[in-house]
Structure formats: structure tokens, C-alpha cells
Amino acid sequence: MLDAVAKRQVAAAAFAAIVALKLHHVASATLLLPPGSGASPLSPAHLVAWCALDAAYLLVLRFADVPRLRFSTATSAALALALALVNAAIIGALSPSTDVGRPAYQSSGSQYEAGPQRDRLMQQPEFSNSTHILGSHVVNVLPPTLIKMNPNGTTFCVSPTSRQSVDLPVLVKGSPPWTIDYERLDWDGGADAVGNITIDIPGMVPDERRVGTFYLTVDKPGIYRITSIRESGGAEGRVINSHAEVAACPEARWAIADDVLGRTIDRCIDESYEYAVSVRGAPPLRAYYVRDGGQEVPVLTLESPELEEWEDDEEDAPETPALPKELRRLLYEVKEREFVLGAEIKMETAGPHYFKLVAVTDGRNNTITYGTLPRGVSLLGAARQSELPADEFIIDSHEHPAVRFQSCDLLKIRAGAGFEDSSVNLPIVLGGAAPWNIVIERFESEAAAADGGDLLDEIAVDGWDARALAVPVKKPGFYQLRSVSDQFCGGRVELPGACLVQQTFPPTISVVAEPIEQSCVGAIGSLVNVSLTGDPPFWIHYDEIYDNARTRRRLEVNKLRDTLSFKPTLPGKYEYEFKTVGDATYREGVPIDGIVFTQIIHPQSEARFERVNNRILRCVDDSVDLDVHLTGTGPWTLTYEMVFEASKTHFSKSEIVEPHIQISTPPLSRPGTYVVGLINVTDGNGCSWALETPDVSIEVLAQRPSVSFNCAKPFNILEGGSAALPLSFSGRQPFAVKFQRQDQPGHFYEVGKLREGDKVTVSEPGVYEVVEARDSVCTGVTKQPNQCLVNMIAKPRLSISPKQYSRESDGVFIRDGICQGGSDSLEIQFYGKSQFQARYLVERLYDGKTERIGPKDVLAAGKTSIIGLETSKPGVYKYTFSSLADGNYKDFMPLAGQPIVVQQEIMSKPTAKFLQVKETAFQCIGDDTTNDTAIQIALEGQPPFELLLELKHESFPREIIRLANLTDKLHAFRPPALTATGKYALQLMAVRDATGCETSLDRDASGTRAAVQVSDAARIASLNPPAVCVGDALAYTLQGAAPFYVAYEFDGVPMGEVAVYDPLLTLHAAEPGVVAITSVCNHRRCCTHPRNLTTIIHELPTAIVDGGYDLVEDIREGDEALIAVEFKGEPPFSFTYSRRSFPSASSAKGRQPATEEETFTVTNIESPYYSISTTQEGLFQVTAVYDKHCGYPRNHQYSKAMANAVLKRQK
Predict the structure, then answer these.
(1) Which of 582, 688, 705, 921 could form a disulfide bond with 589, CB atoms 3.0-4.6 angstroms apart?
(2) H/E run at residue 1112
(3) Is 791 helix (H, G, I), strand (E, B) or coil?
């Protein structure tokens, strides 16, 4: 942390720095700027910068909390104001109005800025900072001033709802600046005058006629016209009658009511809609709009009526009687008016119809566009894009709603006790847009509705929002739909539009039972006659009570009268109680009271097939076992038959005591269809019963199924793979096969659910044979060929030939080492099926580290492959082959046993380089050589080394130097004796070490080259005449080894040494005087001291025009201007001056040069004063001046920056 004293010192130093910066600005303005330069010394920017620095300093000082410098806010503000006043006083004292500087332009008459074109004419880059040619004279021959507004008669418009403005062109002929007055006429004839507008046209490029254009920026509509123009001297110019009309930009908006939601209007199909657009602007107005969007739709228009013919009635417009008739007519035509333009559209299709305004055009050809115009639209006049978005609205056309009954068949209302609140639903289907309102009428009958009878009821449904509706009704009658309406439209009633609702009563039942008698047994059942009332179909619930067990049963009856058979299978007493009856209307049923009857069933015998299909398939010589179930009183005797073709065979089985038996057919020896049927059964009572059991059909096939292998050739599989063996089948699918491998007899493979074309999969080699087959019907046979051979393909192998390595150690093959960068390769042998692919890993061992390279893959199409070995870096390389793939085993597989490892050592090459690469110079030639010029060479490798060098002088042949048996890694090389001056180059060629590795060194490599310089004494010679002029360059040639150090005197004063790195010394003559060279040395200080090597420098002449000022003089046509020229130098004088005319309008268009220049030369002037008179207009400047010795400008262009030193006196 700083103490209080240090803080005050820092604050004082900061304030001193600000004061120093201000003094620098003042010095630059008053001392460094050349006289007559025309530049302003200090600008307002300096004042702003100074005040900003002062304020920042006071602000930082306040927050820095410096003891004794803690000022209050009021004190800081007062100090800032005081410093600002001091700054302003200093800059005001040095402003161009004082004697420090002078104005940029001075005129003999009125004084004003010259236009930009005159500034450009007076630019002379080669003289801009010269003190030898000062001043210029501009002569302006002033033409008459003319002004015209809106020369092209363009129309303009401004939007009253935005802040956009327009630029009105004004054409002026004359010399700027001017002062103009103009006025704006509003639509009622009132005028807003604007005066004393100064116009300088900063960007105007006048031609020879001094015609230019400037722009008035306006933002209000009206008629604008220029009322007067005045030149800078006050002379009035002529206003050409013209004006510019600025209309209110046309606007268009749809005339849509504010309460329209989302600007969407709903209408029904076949309804019409009148729409309108509100337009404002100068009539006639035309609005462009599109319907239904898109880029290809046609553009429609709405047009306002033409404006009524204008009648000039000054009495009706007393406020505008002073305006010309033409302007009054124009005000009438351009005045903004509003129209509402309407059209009508009839909705013919359903869906949204989009209306979008795209443009509006007024009667003055002003066009405003909204958004992107559709393709193909052609508008009048130049179009402007509106800031407002395109106005649009939508007419959404809707289909009329529709209503109908969905189904009116058998709508009935139930009556009777318990059904007082019953009702039926009238199903209704709706079309349109929800919600719907529906009205339904009820009449006594259809005839009453048709004849206009009494309306019994009316049902109204309001606000329904689903397309399906069920209206509950409780009264019978004829219901018809009267009307429907949805959210948007009224609708129509479609067919069916009426429904008849009837009243119905509960069903009733009466039952009469009669026993079924059979001889030998008695009653075997009952016939029940049922009589019903109601709406069929009917259902009946009754309870069957047998052996104290009650079972609920259901009967279906489809007619009003029916006879039902009740024949139980078990003997005993049966009681039947009828509980419930229902019909199509009373679906839940009504109870039945008091209907009960009883029957006693005697047992009877019966036999039937069980668990068999009606059709059984078997093969020839097979037999069939059929299961039979018997009921009744045993023992039984069963008679059955088998029918084949035209023969029948009867069979009988007696003394059957079990209810479940099995009968068997004899072997079925012939193919065809056999039918087995049960004929009759006799029970233990001796009663015989004819059987009506369905027969069983047995289809006997002519052939048994067969199977064989379909192996055209042996199958080859990979280790871990499998083979699919194809099979051939005959018979009915699915099939099952059993097969075995010959070397494993008795070990069977079974596969089922096979279909034609299926295969069996095996994964082991061997000979497989199929031993058994069956299909879905019976067991089959095997056929030849019944065997398949499966072979196992061996894995690929890799080996290294003994020729590829010198020895083996611990399973690693060791190859002979080679030098770094050499070429070496390894041959690999493959066994298997091509193409082969081996993967190996390269490891480099060096300096106790291991670098992994890879893994890498080698691809071989043959049995042998050669891989390149790594030799780019020294170290021990190990190549480990770990996996292999071939044409069979396409995925990499690990090598059998241990991986194969090949090892090789790469020995590093020796290197050599110079440690001292800079030039090493001897003393001057002829002196005793006492310097040690030994050059250090660094060697790397295993010593001893052998080194080869090349020594080359720039003028002598090369010399090869061989150094052998170098035992040190750092060798001090001393070149042989060097007697000739010049530069010797040393180049390291090659190096070999004890390993036998040799390195040829690159000539361009770093550290392989060195140089030795032998120097002679430096010498100098002059290339200059005895006398030169200021601004010339003095040249001297130097001999010897650079750099040179040259000492010289200027007007007898020693100026020190100049370091020269080229064989040419140049001195720039900045001031007149005498220069003498005293000594010249090289960098080894081998010097010479020339005598009488001197040169005289003369001053340049000066020409001053009009006292050195840039004078602008205005004369009228016929007057004469006088131009004064003053010379400085040694007479006689000569000078050249030029007159450059101002550019014409045609030159601005590129038809001739921008300016025309005339040159005049005057010679042999003994007096230092001369004057020129002229009546011509233009810029007069002196371009060259000469005296007895020198001239300006110099004929040669020499840059001072190129000189080694500048010759001028020391201050």
C-alpha cells in the first residue's frame, strides 16, 4: 500500500502528464506545421479531448482518497469548469483567426468555402508540403444562378401514419453556396413558408455549366415550390416555374365490422355476401386483391369513380385567390379523399375463401404494396412497400345441415304393470357443424300427419353437439322431423324423416304335454305343445327337477305355436316348472305362474362312436380300432358292418357288460374307402334298438410315406459351424425322421414337424444315414440315397521360414540388425484357402520405454506374403502375429499354440553438426593471424568416427577434407591456412561411426554449413559532381567486406560514423553546406582515410504566389485578375505555371477529361518579382521554379528514407 506522500506524488505525476500532452498538441500546431499549409492548428476535437482528460482526472482523484486532495463535489465541479475555460482560452488564442495560422481560402471580395470540386483542383500532391512553391490563385467567372424544383416531374407520396420522408430533387445552376426560400401548399390552399435555407451541395460535382442537384427532405403531403434563391453575395437568382406534388400515400383496408371474431365471416352455401374496401388517397383509386391465396390465383381490382371535373370558382375559395389556376386545379386533384368500394360474392362451394389486399394505386401513379405480390401482377408507377401488414379476411362457407332418422323398424313401447316409465329412443343422424337445434312433431297416425290433423306433441332439442342423437319418447304415435339448424345455417330433413312408435303388451304362454310311448319299454319322453303371444322370437326358461337336482334350461321358439320333444337319456321321474318367457320387445322376460308337468322315463339302449372323426386315414395292411359307448340295460349285443366298394361284411359282438368297448377292423389290404357303421344293439331285456349313429369313413392310402437324403456332394463345415442336410419326402405333411451317424450306431437323432423342402442340421463331421420316417398318417420307409458325408475344414496356419531369422531364443525369432532408415522385409507363409489375412502388433523398445504401433493387417492372395519392417526410428522392434483368417475362416481366429514373435534391432545413424554457424573472420589480410578460428563440431553415435567435409572458396575449386579416428564426440576443427580474401564455405558431407552405419548429411539441413571470412582494408570512391542541390542524393562506392563504417564532416563539424551494409553509401542533402568524407572501415576495423573527398550543396529556389496564400477571386465576365509571384534564390530565375479549368457537365459523364490544363513558361528573370494578368477562369499555380544552380521540383524522385544518413546541421 502507498503512503500519503506517495499518493500525492502519483497524483502530481498524472496531472503533469496531462499538461505535457496539451503542450505537445500546442507545439505540433504552432511549430511543426509548415507556414502556409492551410491546416487549422487546433480543432474543437482537441478541446473535447482536453476537457475529458481533466474531468476524468478529477473524478479519479475524488475516489482515490488522497490526503490533502480530498475535494468536495462542488469544488471538483468548479475545478473542472475552470480547467475547461483555460482550455478554451488556449485553443481560441491559437485558432485560425489569429496570426498563428491563416484561413484556408481568402478572397478579395466576399469570403466563403470553395466547393469540393475546387478543393480537388487545388490538390498538388508533389507540392502539398513544399516550402519552395507557396500559394495559388483561383479565378471564378460567375454565371447567372437558376433553380428548378422536380425537373423530371416525378410524383411523390408520404404516409400520414408513418414517419417516412421523401427527397425532392432541386436542380441548380450557378456557384455555391446559395440561400433559398420555399413553401408548402396544403389541400385547402394554405401555405407554410420556409426561408433562409443555406445550400452548399457537399456531394455535388458541378460540370462546366455548374449544374448540380440537391434534395429537400420533407415528410408532409402538399404542393412544394421554390419561391426565391440568392447567391452568397446577396444577388437574386431566377426561379424557373416548377413544383413537386407530395400526395398522401394511398391506403386500403377491408371495411369489416369490429365485432367480427378473427376477421372470419361465416356464410352458408348459396348465400351472398357484400364486402367492401375502404381506400384513401388521390382519386381515382384502385385496390388490388386476391381470393383464396396462392401464387397463381388471378388478381382482382376495385376502382373508385373518376374525379368530377374541376370548376374554377374563386368566390368559393377566397383563401387561395393568389394561386395560379394550374396550382388550384392541382390542389383539387391531389387532395386526399376516402371511398368505400363494394362487391358481392355468392358462396357456391364449402370451405374458407381468403381475401387479401396486395396493393393500392392512386390517381398520381403512386403504388403501395402489401407483402409479396403474386406472380404476373403489373402495377402502375414505382411501387413502395407498406410498413403495415397485408389486410385480409376470410369468408367461411358452410354446408347446410341435414337430419334424418337412422332406423325406424319396430319401435315399440312396452305396456303393463311395472312398465309405466318405459320409453323408446328415436335414433337421429345429424350433418353440419355443432351445435344443432332440432324440432320433432308427434301425430296420432301417418294419415293424420298427411291430412293436417291435430299436432299432439312437439319436441325441441337445442344445443346438441354430437352427430348422433337418441331422443327418448314414452308415447306411441307418428313422429316426424320438422326442422334442423346448426351453428351457421338452417338445414333440410332427409329420408327417413318419420318414425312410427307402437305400444306392445307382455308375452303369454300355454303348455299341453303328451307322453311318447314305445313298445317293449313304455314312455320314453313327452311332446309339449306350446302356444305363445307377443313378438317372436321367444325364449323360455324352465327348471328340470331330476333326482332332487334342479337344472335351469332355456328354449328358443321362433313362432307362435310349436311342439317340443322332452326325451331325457336317463330313466327316472322328471318334473318341469316353467319360470319365465320373453320376446323381442320384453327381452328381460316376464314371470310364468302355475305351469308344471311330470313324466316318468323308462330306460332304452343306445350305442355310438366316440372320440373319432368322420374320416380316418390309414395305409395298406393297417387295421383301425374304434371306440364305442353303450347306454341302457346290459349285457348288450352289438351288430356292426364294414362296407368296401360293393361288398358288405357284418360283424357281431355279444355279452358286452362294459359301457365303453373297442372294436377292430381286419387288416385293410386294398386301397380305397372303407365305411364302418353300427346296425343295432340288443339290451338285457331282449329289446332290440335300431341305431342311427353316424358312420365312420376310413381312407386307405395306396403307398406308405418315404424319405431319403438329397446330398449331391459332401458337405464341408467350419469348426463351430453346422451343415443343413436336405431331405426328400413323399407322403402327407408333417413328417418325422430318425437318423444316425455310422460311427455311433444306436445313437439316433429324431426331428419332427418337417415339411417338404426342410433340412436337418448337424454340427459334427461323419457319415449320416436316415433309418426311419413317418408322416401324419402312418410309418414309412427309407429310400436310397439314405446317406450324407460331412467333412470338417481345417483352420488356417502361419509360419516363418528359418531363412527369415538368424537364431531363436525363448520362442522368439531373432533377425540380424540393420541401420536406421534401411530397407528390410519379412516373408510369411500361409496354409489354408486364399485369400489370407493376418493381424500383428509392432512394439518398439527404446530407452526403457515401449511404443505400440498397430495392430496392423496384412492381406495375401497367395500362400506367401512379404511385409515391410519398421526402420525409421532406432530401437528393438518386436512383431507379434496373433490371429489369422483365410477364405474359409473369414473372421480372425487366434493362432494355434503361442503367437509367433519376430525381433529385430534398428541401430541409429551417426550425426554431425557445427556448433558455431556464424561467420568467423580473420584479421585484415597481411596482419598476423592470432585469432583462434577453430569451429566446434558435435558428433553423435558410437566412436570412433570418420568425418567427410568440403571447403569451397567463392573463386577456387572445392577441396575435400577427410577426418578419421575421431574418438571424442566434440571435435575442434581448424581449417588449413587461408591466404586469399573472400568467403570460405564449409559443408559437412558424411559421417560414419563404429557400428558401420553411415549418414549422408543434407546440404540444406541446419548445422551442416559454416563460413569463414578473410577481409581486406575498406576503400571508398565518390560518384558525385563537385556541387549538388538540396534534396539530391550523394553516392559513394565502397570496397571491402561489409558492414562499413564511414565518418564524415558537414561544414567542418564531425557528424560521427554511418554503418553501411551495402557497397553503396548514399547521403541525403537536406540543407545547404559542404560535406567531406574523413574515413571508411570494415567490420574488422580495416580502415582508409581519403583526402579532398568534398562536395558543395546549394539551396533550392522558391516561388511565392500572392504572398503564399490560397486566394480565391470572383470576377464577372469581362473583368481582369492580377496574380503576383515572388522569387528567392540566385538569379537569373525561370518558372512554369499552369491554369486548370473547372470541369463541365459533359466531363462528369465521362465524355472528356475532368479538367483542361494549360502550361506557360517564363525565363531569364533577373528581378525577384513578377506579375501575371488574366481574364480567364481557373486555378493558377506555379509548377516549377529555377535559379542559377538548382530547380524545383527536382527531376529525379529520391526518397529520404532510402539514404544512409541525412546531411543537416546539428541543433
Answers:
(1) 582
(2) strand 1110-1115
(3) strand
Task: Say which amino acid occupies 438.
Answer: I
Q: Could you give the C-alpha distances from 680 to 610, 639, 654, 687, in angstroms and in order?
A: 16, 5, 12, 10
Amino acid identity for residue 103 in this structure: P
Are 731 and 705 in contact by the 8 Å Cβ rule? The answer is yes
Query: CA-CA distance, 139 to 1137, in Å (whole number)?
Result: 15
The closest of 555, 552, 510 to 537, measured between CA atoms, is 555
Q: Which helix (H) or strand (E) holds 1078?
A: strand 1073-1081
CA gap 938, 969 in Å, rounded? 6
C-alpha cell at 383: 411501387
Check pLDDT > 80 for residue 644. Answer: yes
Q: Where do we find the cell 322376460? A: 589
3-state secondary structure of 446: helix
**Each residue's pLDDT tens digit, 1106-1128:** 888 888 887 766 678 888 999 99
Pick from 963, 975, 911: which is nearest to 941 by CA? 911
What pTM was estimated for this model as a whole? 0.40
Residues in contact with 582: Cβ distance below 8 Å, sequence separation at least 6, in sequence order: 507, 538, 539, 588, 589, 590
As a whole number, mean pLDDT of residues 1183-1206 equals: 82
d(CA 666, CA 648): 13
Across the chain, mean pLDDT equals 82
Q: Which three cell numbers stand for residue 612?
A: 373319432
Q: Backbone dihedral region of 325: left (phi > 0), alpha (psi from -120 to 50 degrees) or beta?
A: alpha
Q: Which amino acid is at 886?
A: D
Place of cell 503512503: 3
Give per-residue pLDDT as tens, 988-1002: 899 998 888 888 888
Place of cell 496564400: 1109
Joined together, the cell numbers standing for residue 925 give 589480410
Interval 254-262 mean pLDDT: 71
Question: Residue 810 contacts by C-beta under 8 Å, 6 or more apart in sequence?
Answer: none
* Residue 1131, phi then psi, degrees to nearest 5: -65, 165
Average pLDDT over residues 611-632: 84
The cell numbers describing 17, all together, are 502528464
Q: Give the confidence band of 1076 by pLDDT, cuts at 50, 70, 90.
A: very high
Crossing angle of helices 73-93 and 4-27, rounded to 10°: 20
Cell output for 296:
397463381
Which distant-in-sequence residues (6+ apart) come within 8 Å of 45 by Cβ? none
C-beta atoms surrounding 245 within 10 Å: 25
DSSP 333-368: HHS-EEEEEEEEEE--SSEEEEEEEEEEE-TTS-EE
Give dist(CA 641, CA 620) in Å, integer: 20
